[in-house]
Amino acid sequence: MAKPTTVADSSPSVEPTEAPSKKPSVGAALYTWVDDRHGIAKLGRTGLRKVFPDHWSFLLGEIALYSFIVLLITGVFLTIWFKPSMAEIEYDGSYQLLKGIPVSEAFASTLDISFDVRGGLLVRQIHHWAALLMVAAAFVHMLRVFFTGAYRKPREVNWLIGVGLLALSTIAGFAGYSLPDDLLSGTGLRFVDGLIRSIPLIGTWAEFFVFGGEFPGALVIPRLYMVHILLVPGLILGLVSAHLALVVYHKHTQYPGPGHTNNNVVGYPLFPVYMAKAGGFFFIVFGLLVLMGGLFQINPVWTYGPYDPSKVTAGSQPDWYMGWVEGAIRIVPNWESHLGATTWSWAIFLPGVGLMGLLFTLLGVWPFIEAWLTGDNREHHVLQRPRNAPVRTAFGVAAMTCFAMFWLAGGNDIIATRFHLSLNAITVFMRVAVFVAPVIAFIITKRVCQSLQARDRERVLHGSEDGVIMRSPVGSYGEAHVPISQEEAYTTTQHLQRTPLEAADGTDAAGVAGKKGRISALRARASRWYLGAEVPKPTAAEIEAAASHHGDDAGDDHELQDSGAGPRQLN
């Protein structure tokens, strides 16, 4: 029998020893210090696991944001050498064709940045391209929000912030475009001077306030510089922060699909998936802007020369986002009114100041107009397919068409010279097209949306063609239908079926009339017009009847297949 091992008393005893403490790193110590005071660990756990849906159209807003970051980076570089002064000096720089010419310090410093500062021309052009891309991305991002109904409750305030960001982006772009004080930007400033002076009653005083006297004055470049580098960027930073905070607070919208409801977000967490994607996409945008700045020339101020109030650049065109305003002014007839000692220039004020005010006012109030038309006060976190809101989609396309007509009218002189056409004929055509083309676009778009809705209804009820042409005993040809997938069926029928409002006097169950629940006849008619164009989606009874129509022998084929595993879902 084995005996236990005996340890002699003379054996040395082993005393337990403590492991040497490892000194925390500086980063860990700093993190601990901050976390003890501000609780960033809890905030980080919540924020870094925030789920965002994955769809290419959500990148449009990111393009605008990343372009703004590039603008800040390149703007700091340009600020070091640019001199916002209209003081006149004699140019003595590297560009030989302008040597000895009287120019402003702003124009001379722009030439120095372009020819004498290492990398200056590249940074200037990156800055200009980034400004154009930012406004373009903001425009398209807002169109995506409009067509998918992402502005509905509870995101009305975020929509208003987006409208403000779009307006500020155009102001920042125009202010930066005017800073070089070249002949092209000076022509644009004269255009704005005309808009200001066209304001009834206060136009002259407003002009004196902006320009510090009669146009061009000696203060407009320093004032625009302050607006461009300080005031507007600060406002944009504040609104962008509020915009992103509301996106996180309300949770991100998502497109309809299996498992996508108003109570969850299906997508990927912020860390590490979304942060890696966003970081990579930022460098893609930055790299593209660097390529554009290095390969595509933009705003060569040395070919225009310094600004001279007695000259106007032939064929001058503003940046694209202001071209529609110029086009509106070009095609409006010369309407003026004389009231007492004042002259009211309607041909400038209405298409210029009036149209811009109308655009941003309509954008701002649209969510509330639609809520009034539909009576819909529910929260919406799942987006609408544009086809499921035919009238709204048609409105959007009509507005885009009207914008395009005005924009083309802004280049009527270029079109006339390039295509050897009559300038007067083009102007008359555009006067008609800005009214007719949007109506045609509205009708066509509405019919296309209704056709797509009818097609979706047909596919849900009768399936899709299997692609095999068969000949019947009587000699006719046709295709058999197979059931569509469960994923497609769910996506097609997920949207809420909206019904027009009916006129009501607000009488409750007790027969007491009140304002609550009252719907006027005008509102009911407007609701029928707005919602009456929607094709009703199939009901559960219709889907069941259509399934039984195919026969029991094909029942297995009509079972809708699930799409299987998908991205992570957060309830």
List keywords for this structure.
two-stranded antiparallel ribbon; disordered N terminus; disordered C terminus; Cytochrome Bc1 Complex, Chain C; mainly alpha
Q: Unreliable runs, pLDDT <50, ≥5 residues?
A: 1-14, 552-571
As a whole number of angstroms, the C-alpha radius of gyration is 32 Å
CATH class of the domain at 49-304: Mainly Alpha
Beta-strand content: 5-15%
Report the helical percentage: 55-70%
Distance between the termini: 65 Å
**CATH homology superfamily of the domain at 49-304:** Cytochrome Bc1 Complex, Chain C
Protein structure class: mainly alpha
* Strand order in space, largest sheet: 1-5
Q: Shape, please?
A: globular
Chain-averaged pLDDT: 87
Beta strands, count: 12
- CATH architectural name of the domain at 49-304: Up-down Bundle
Biggest sheet record: 2 strands, antiparallel
Number of H- or I-type helical stretches: 19
The fold-level CATH name of the domain at 49-304 is: Cytochrome Bc1 Complex, Chain C
Main location: membrane
Region (Disordered): 1-23, 541-571
Catalytic activity: a quinol + 2 Fe(III)-[cytochrome c](out) = a quinone + 2 Fe(II)-[cytochrome c](out) + 2 H(+)(out)
GO molecular function: metal ion binding; oxidoreductase activity; quinol-cytochrome-c reductase activity
Written overview of the protein:
This protein is mostly helical and about 575 residues long. Among the domains are: about 50-305, Cytochrome Bc1 Complex, Chain C, CATH 1.20.810.10; about 455-550, no CATH class. The protein has helices at about 25-40, 40-50, 60-80, 105-115, 120-150, 155-180, 185-195, 205-210, 220-250, 270-295, 300-305, 320-330, 345-375, 390-410, 410-420, 425-460, 485-495, 520-530, 540-550; strands at about 50, 90, 100-105, 265, 270, 335-340, 340-345, 465-470, 475-480, 505, 520, 570. The strands form 6 sheets. A two-stranded antiparallel ribbon has the order 1-5. The chain has a two-stranded antiparallel sheet with strand order 2-3. A two-stranded antiparallel ribbon has the order 4-12. Its main location: membrane. It is found in: Cell membrane. It is a multi-pass membrane protein.
